[in-house]
Write a structure and sequence with these properties.
With 75 residues, this protein is mainly alpha-helical. Helix content is 45%, strand content 0%. The chain is elongated.
């Protein structure tokens, strides 16, 4: 029983040490790697712009880019 409690304690400490603030901090000179083209959500930037425009046109309320518009597509 003590062996199992000891193992549980060790495993818990290992998991909690993974949440350390020092391990997650990203330095300013490391942020440039997150801005690479291959890290973008959409491989085709033009298509993503078109889909975003179509979404904003079809949305009949305030758009995501803080511009108010109707469902007709006029801005």
């Amino acid at each position: 029983m003590q062996y199992m409690v000891f193992n549980l304690l060790i495993v818990s400490l290992l998991f909690l040490s993974g949440c350390s603030d020092k391990l997650v901090r990203v330095m300013p000179y490391e942020k440039e790697h997150f801005a690479d083209k291959k890290m973008s959500l959409s491989p085709l930037e033009e298509r993503a712009e078109q889909e975003g425009h179509i979404f904003l046109i079809r949305e009949a309320s305030a758009g995501g880019d803080s511009s108010f518009q109707g469902g007709c597509g006029c801005r």
